[in-house]
Amino acid sequence: MNFDIVFDQVLILLIIMVAGVIAGKAGIIADGASKKFSELLLYVTSPMLVLGSFFFEYSAEKFINGLMVFLIATVFYFFSIFLSSILFKGFDEKIKPIMRFSSVFSNAGFIGLPMMKALYGQDGVFLGSFYIVAFNLFVWTFGYTMYGEAKKGDGIKSLMKKALLNPSVIAVYVGVIIFVLRIPVPESVKSAVNYIGDMTMPLSMLIIGALISTAKIKELVNDARVYYVSAVRLILMPLLAYGILYLLGVPEQIVSIIVTALAMPVAATTTIFADLFDKDAVFASKAVMVSTILSVITAPVIVALL
Q1: Counting beta carbons within 10 angstroms of the beta carbon of residue 53, is it exposed (0 to 12), middle (13 to 18) or buried (19 or more)?
Q2: Could you tell me which CATH number the domain at 2-305 has?
Q3: Burial level of 199, CB count in 10 A (0-12/13-18/19+)?
Q4: SS (H, E, C) the chain
Q5: 10 Å Cβ neighbour count for 180?
Q6: For residue 182, with 0-12 CB atoms within 10 Å meaning exposed, 13-18 middle and 19 or more buried, which class applies?
Q7: Per residue of the chain (306 residues), what is the pLDDT tens digit?
Q8: Is-contact 70 53, C-beta < 8 A?
Q9: How confident is the model at residue 159, as a pLDDT?
Q10: Domain spans, the chain
Q11: Phi, psi (5° rounding) for residue 135?
């Protein structure tokens, strides 16, 4: 059953990505349009996805478990960021930030949350949302800096300020306040937020497909660096987390959420950031595409360990 659920979720992503490739080849998503779509995703739909994850009834026990997920995710992000600086030390500076970003950040939101809902029910989505909080904080600070520190005119302090005040992280602040203070949110507002947030996954995969359409098929599958990144992302990171958390005696439900999130393919944000910061967006798209295809095999195996 778990294999079927994971396979179906990954297959959905691949189908949407293929639609993006076709739209790119046909000129429907023209050159330059993907960058505007990326901005729409990062500054509008993604913040709504984050905010919508906090629309749950308050429970002290759930909140404590959620905080534990957030704390463990935070510690592991620091660990994976450090590990990535070692694993990709000798690579070209042009693609090194993409490789590091790819290994650290998984597609925990766009595919991870739907999968957690299918595997673990509504509680899985709730706990998974705390992982997404950590994801957004790190992707907009350390992740943003990985790409942005080479951009002229941006110092570390400037980047950190932008990261902590960007729409997705602001959505985290608002969401925590709503959840903890039990502020009632009208159903119409919830629906509007969720409708916009639900656009994030298909929009991101269409963008990736459009970027992939600019490259030759041979170039997509003959790059050994992409397979190295995929192995780190899909196998090394989740297995390390599983081993460490198992030895520490962390509750099974929390281990399941963390490992499931880490077993996901390279985050779609990898390509979006590469496009925004004028890095090698095609290489980033290859990393997302190849890891997503390989995750059809690896994700069910990792989840089966749980």
Answers
A1: buried
A2: 1.20.1530.20
A3: middle
A4: CHHHHHHHHHHHHHHHHHHHHHHHHCCCCCCCHHHHHHHHHHHHHHHHHHHHCCCCCCCHHHHHHHHHHHHHHHHHHHHHHHHHHHHCCCCCCCCHHHHHHHHHCECHHHHHHHHHHHHHHHHHHHHHHHHHHHHHHHHHHHHHHHHHCCCCCCCHHHHHHHHHCCHHHHHHHHHHHHHHCCCCCCHHHHHHHHHHHCCHHHHHHHHHHHHHCCCCHHHHHCCHHHHHHHHHHHHHHHHHHHHHHHHCCCCHHHHHHHHHHHCCCECCHHHHHHHHCCCCHHHHHHHHHHHHHHHHHHHHHHHHHC
A5: 11
A6: exposed
A7: 566 777 777 788 788 888 998 998 888 887 677 778 878 887 898 888 888 878 877 788 888 998 999 999 999 999 999 999 999 988 877 788 899 999 999 988 877 887 887 788 878 888 888 898 888 888 877 887 777 654 545 566 666 676 677 787 788 889 889 988 989 999 999 999 999 988 888 888 888 788 778 777 776 678 889 999 999 999 999 999 999 999 999 999 999 999 999 999 999 888 878 877 777 888 888 898 888 888 878 988 888 877
A8: no
A9: 61
A10: 2-305
A11: -55, -50
Q: Scanning the structure block, which residue is given the tokens 């997503």?
A: 292
- Residue carrying the six token digits 């709730």: 126
- φ/ψ (deg, to 5) at 252: -55, -40
274 burial level (CB within 10 Å; 0-12, 13-18, 19+): buried
Torsion of CA 284, 117, 68, 129, to 10 degrees: 60
Token digits for 43?
């500054």
Q: What's the confidence (pLDDT) of residue 220?
A: 67
- pLDDT the model gives residue 235: 96
* Structural Rg of the chain based on CA atoms: 18
CA 41 to CA 92: how far, in whole Å?
29
